[in-house]
Amino acid sequence: MFFVHCQDCAQTVRSIAAAIATSLDVAIDPVVSTFHVAHARCRLRHFFPTGRAIANGPWHEPMTERRIEVSGGDGLAVAVGTRETLQDELSWRIEPGHIDEELHVQLDHLAFWDCVDRALFPHHIPRRTLAAWATHVDDFVRRVLREDLVLLEDDPAHPSASTACLTLTSRVQLETSVGTFGFDPESERRLLAAFEDPAFPALTVTRRFVSASA
User: Fold this and answer.
1) Is 34 helix (H, G, I), strand (E, B) or coil?
2) Are 203 and 112 in contact, with CB atoms under 8 Å apart?
3) pLDDT in tens, 163-173
4) Over the range 68-97, which residues count as b (16 or more CB within 10 Å of their CB) and which as e?
5) What pTM was estimated for this model as a whole?
6) From CA 60, how far away is CA 20, in angstroms rounded?
7) What is the chain's Cα-based Rg?
8) Phi, psi of 82, deg, nearest 5
9) How far apart, in whole angstroms, are the C-alpha atoms of residue 156 and residue 31?
10) Which whole-number Å values give the CA distances from 119 to 27, 88, 113, 157, 171, in the listed order?
11) Contacts of 170 (CB under 8 A, 6+ apart)
């Protein structure tokens, strides 16, 4: 996929053909060929996706706005695809700038407590102490760095969200903290057993993309 943009007319088309060695070889795509003919006297630029993209809804929804970071050879830009109505074809425009990515990491509380409950059952543990440790886990994962995360699967219903877990190094830090909360030996043993699952604690990572001006 690549984009052809007319600098004189401020019009853009997208080709779904694979980006080939030279973007001037457009005979395989009639849409792009027609565009080249119509803008034969104009200044044309070709833009290729960098691999970073975001949508404000599910990608399969027709009215979802798509924002794709592209490279034009001398810098980055953002190709924006929108529709006014369901009957319209998807139209594209090129905006100067690039896409910045921000990660918001939070504990998957349902998965976390399900794993903890299974590890403790049928053992009983003081709720206040357990709640204090859970708060520590919550705070820990919110502060992790990008390099401390292992992304697992994207959420098909939410294009910006993924399931994730911690790297082994980060998990060891969290595992070590169990011994600092004053749990009785049996409670500590059971909680440490939860870390035998490499995906514990389960995390949700939400990517927030912001188009930054050039």
Assistant:
1) helix
2) no
3) 999 999 999 99
4) bbbeeeeebbbbbbeeeeeeeeeebebeeb
5) 0.57
6) 26
7) 25
8) -140, 165
9) 30
10) 62, 54, 10, 30, 17
11) 144, 148
Identity (one letter) of the amino acid at 128?
R
181: nearest Cα among 141, 140, 137, 132: 132
Annotated domain spans of the chain: 2-96, 102-212
Strands 66-71 and 76-82: antiparallel
Instruction: HSE, CB side, 13 Å, CA atoms: give it for residue 75.
Output: 10
Residue 169's H or E segment, with its range, is: helix 168-177
Token pair of 15, please?
């080709």
Amino acid at 70: V
Q: In what order do the strands lie in the sheet with 158-166?
A: 98-107, 203-212, 158-166, 149-155
The structure tokens listed for 85 are: 């109505």
- Yes or no: say if 28 and 37 are a contact pair by the CB < 8 Å rule: no
Note the residue count of the chain: 214
Question: Mean pLDDT across the stretch 48-64?
Answer: 87
